[in-house]
Amino acid sequence: MDNSQQEVEGSKPSGTHERYEISKKHVTEFMSYKFGLKDMEFNELNFEFVKDYEFYLKTVKNISNNTALKYITNFKKIVLAAVDKEIISADPFKRFKSEKIKVPKKPLTNHELSLMEKHRFSTVRLGVVRDVFVF
């Protein structure tokens, strides 16, 4: 395990580390798809890169708008840390604007609720989460 993973795992839940790993995978795949590269220098990032990355997530990867924004937000946090440490001089996200789309939610049917109440999960923790949800 490298130091960055220990740092993330030591200060944040492991789910956070997983989300960053998935975000990293998407950025790496985008660079390969768009530029034929496995890696790029931070100083090569610009607004067009960010917009093209968003477009790639929504079209090529067929990821919903709100999920794409989560991956972009994770990437942005890393880039802003590089700006803060003066690794790069300009924020490529400065002009980036995108908004979450409000998704209409509908309540569970009585049948769906009954199925959830009767379901037996593999861990006690998930059973407790279910019980709190149903309550």
Residue share in helix = 55-70%
Structural class by SSE content: mainly alpha
Gross morphology = elongated
In total, the number of strands is 0
**Helix and strand string, N-terminal first?**
HHHHHH
User: What characterizes the major β-sheet?
Assistant: none
Rg estimate, integer Å = 19 Å
How far do the termini sit from each other?
40 Å
Mean pLDDT: 87
Describe the protein.
- The protein is mainly α.
- Helix content is 62%, strand content 0%.
- It has 6 helices and no strands.
- The longest helix is centred in the first third of the chain and has 22 residues, at 14-35.
- The radius of gyration is 19 Å and the shape is elongated.
Ordered list of secondary-structure elements with their pairings:
Blueprint: H1 3-11, H2 14-35, H3 47-59, H4 65-84, H5 110-118, H6 124-134
Features:
mainly alpha, disordered N terminus
How would you summarize this macromolecular structure in one to three sentences?
The chain has helices at residues 3-11, 14-35, 47-59, 65-84, 110-118, 124-134. It has 135 residues and is mainly α.
